[in-house]
C-alpha cells in the first residue's frame, strides 16, 4: 500500500502539483488555526501568549451555560438557520426549475444576472436601507399599511415579526445565487430522459416531478448536509445589521454569535468567545457526521463521505 501511494504520487505528480496551492491554503488557514482551541480552556492574556496563559479548565464555558439564556439563544440560532435552509432550498429550486423551463433567451439571461446581484451587497448596507423600510413613523412599510387603512407596526419593539423579515431578507440575498448551483445540476441531466417522457405523453409538470427533482436528490441532500455544519452558527451580519443591540428584541432574535459578540465587548475575554465557538463547531460536526451516516444507510450515493 505504501509503495502504491508513492507510485501514484510519481505518476500523477503534475496533478498533485496543481492541487498544492489549495492544500497549502487549507493547511495554513483551516488547520493551523486549530491550535487556538487552547484559548477556550485558558484565561488568555495576549502579553503571556497562547502557551503561557493560565489554564482554567471549563470555567470559560460557564459564561455561556449559566442560567437559561443559553438554551433560548441556542434554540433561536437553530430555528433561524432551519428556516433559512428550508426556505432557501425550496425557493432556489423553484427559481432554477422555472428559469431552466423557460429556455435560453435574452430576458432569461438578464434575469439570471439581476437575480445574483443581491448576493454581492454586504449586509451592513442592506441594514442601512432597512431603516427606511421599518421606521415606525416614516418607514415605507408603515406608510403602505396606513394607505391600506391597516394598523402600523412598531417593528423595533415587536419581536415576533423579525423572524419573518429575516427569512425574506435571506431569500432576497441568497436564493438567486443558490439557484445557479441547481441550474448547473439540471443542465447536466440527460435530455433523452425528457424526450422519452414527452413521447410517452408526459406533461411539463410530470417531467419536473418525475425526472428533474429525483435527479436532483443527491445534490439537494449534499447541500443540506453541508448546511447542517453551520446550523449552530447564527447569521450575525444579517441580524445585527438590522436590529443592532435592541434589548426589546433579544427574546426572539438573540443568537449565539451576537451573544458572544456582546459578551466579548463587555468582558473582553477571548477565552469565553473561543469556548462558545468550540461548542458551535463540535455540535455542527456531530450533526454532519450523524446525518451523513443516516443518509448513507438510506441512500449511499447521496452521502458526502
Automatic annotation (TrEMBL):
<dbReference type="GO" id="GO:0005886">
    <property type="term" value="C:plasma membrane"/>
</dbReference>
<feature type="transmembrane region" description="Helical">
    <location>
        <begin position="114"/>
        <end position="136"/>
    </location>
</feature>
<feature type="transmembrane region" description="Helical">
    <location>
        <begin position="276"/>
        <end position="295"/>
    </location>
</feature>
<feature type="transmembrane region" description="Helical">
    <location>
        <begin position="14"/>
        <end position="41"/>
    </location>
</feature>
<dbReference type="InterPro" id="IPR000515">
    <property type="entry name" value="MetI-like"/>
</dbReference>
<dbReference type="Pfam" id="PF00528">
    <property type="entry name" value="BPD_transp_1"/>
</dbReference>
<dbReference type="InterPro" id="IPR050809">
    <property type="entry name" value="UgpAE/MalFG_permease"/>
</dbReference>
<dbReference type="InterPro" id="IPR035906">
    <property type="entry name" value="MetI-like_sf"/>
</dbReference>
<keyword id="KW-0472">Membrane</keyword>
<keyword id="KW-0812">Transmembrane</keyword>
<dbReference type="GO" id="GO:0055085">
    <property type="term" value="P:transmembrane transport"/>
</dbReference>
<protein>
    <submittedName>
        <fullName>Sugar ABC transporter permease</fullName>
    </submittedName>
</protein>
<keyword id="KW-1133">Transmembrane helix</keyword>
<feature type="transmembrane region" description="Helical">
    <location>
        <begin position="160"/>
        <end position="189"/>
    </location>
</feature>
<keyword id="KW-1003">Cell membrane</keyword>
<feature type="domain" description="ABC transmembrane type-1">
    <location>
        <begin position="74"/>
        <end position="291"/>
    </location>
</feature>
<keyword id="KW-0813">Transport</keyword>
<comment type="similarity">
    <text>Belongs to the binding-protein-dependent transport system permease family.</text>
</comment>
<feature type="transmembrane region" description="Helical">
    <location>
        <begin position="78"/>
        <end position="102"/>
    </location>
</feature>
Amino acid at each position: 500500500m505504501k509503495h502504491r501511494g508513492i507510485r501514484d504520487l510519481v505518476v500523477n505528480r503534475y496533478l498533485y502539483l496543481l492541487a498544492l496551492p489549495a492544500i497549502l491554503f487549507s493547511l495554513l488557514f483551516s488547520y493551523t488555526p486549530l491550535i487556538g482551541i487552547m484559548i477556550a480552556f485558558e484565561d488568555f492574556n495576549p502579553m503571556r501568549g497562547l502557551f503561557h496563559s493560565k489554564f482554567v479548565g471549563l470555567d470559560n464555558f460557564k459564561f455561556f451555560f449559566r442560567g437559561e439564556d443559553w438554551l433560548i439563544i441556542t434554540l433561536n440560532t437553530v430555528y433561524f438557520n432551519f428556516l433559512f435552509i428550508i426556505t432557501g432550498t425550496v425557493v432556489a429550486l423553484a427559481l432554477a426549475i422555472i428559469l431552466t423551463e423557460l429556455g435560453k433567451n435574452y430576458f432569461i439571461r438578464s434575469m439570471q444576472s439581476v437575480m445574483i446581484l443581491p448576493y454581492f451587497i454586504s449586509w451592513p448596507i442592506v441594514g442601512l436601507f432597512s431603516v427606511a423600510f421599518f421606521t415606525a413613523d416614516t418607514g415605507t412599510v408603515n406608510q403602505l399599511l396606513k394607505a391600506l387603512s391597516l394598523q402600523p407596526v412598531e417593528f423595533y419593539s415587536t419581536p415576533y415579526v423579525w423572524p419573518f423579515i429575516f427569512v425574506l431578507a435571506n431569500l432576497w440575498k441568497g436564493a438567486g445565487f443558490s439557484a445557479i448551483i441547481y441550474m448547473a445540476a439540471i443542465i447536466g441531466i440527460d435530455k433523452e430522459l425528457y424526450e422519452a417522457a414527452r413521447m410517452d405523453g408526459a406533461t411539463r409538470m410530470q417531467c419536473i416531478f418525475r425526472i428533474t427533482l429525483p435527479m436532483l436528490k443527491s445534490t439537494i441532500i449534499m447541500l443540506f448536509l453541508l448546511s447542517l455544519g453551520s446550523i449552530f452558527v447564527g447569521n450575525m451580519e444579517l441580524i445585527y445589521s438590522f436590529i443592532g443591540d435592541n434589548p426589546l428584541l433579544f427574546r426572539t432574535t438573540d443568537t449565539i454569535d451576537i451573544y458572544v459578540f456582546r459578551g466579548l465587548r463587555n468582558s473582553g475575554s477571548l477565552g469565553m468567545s473561543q469556548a462558545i465557538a468550540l461548542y458551535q463547531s463540535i455540535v455542527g460536526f456531530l450533526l454532519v457526521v450523524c446525518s451523513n451516516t443516516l443518509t448513507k444507510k438510506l441512500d449511499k450515493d447521496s452521502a458526502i463521505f
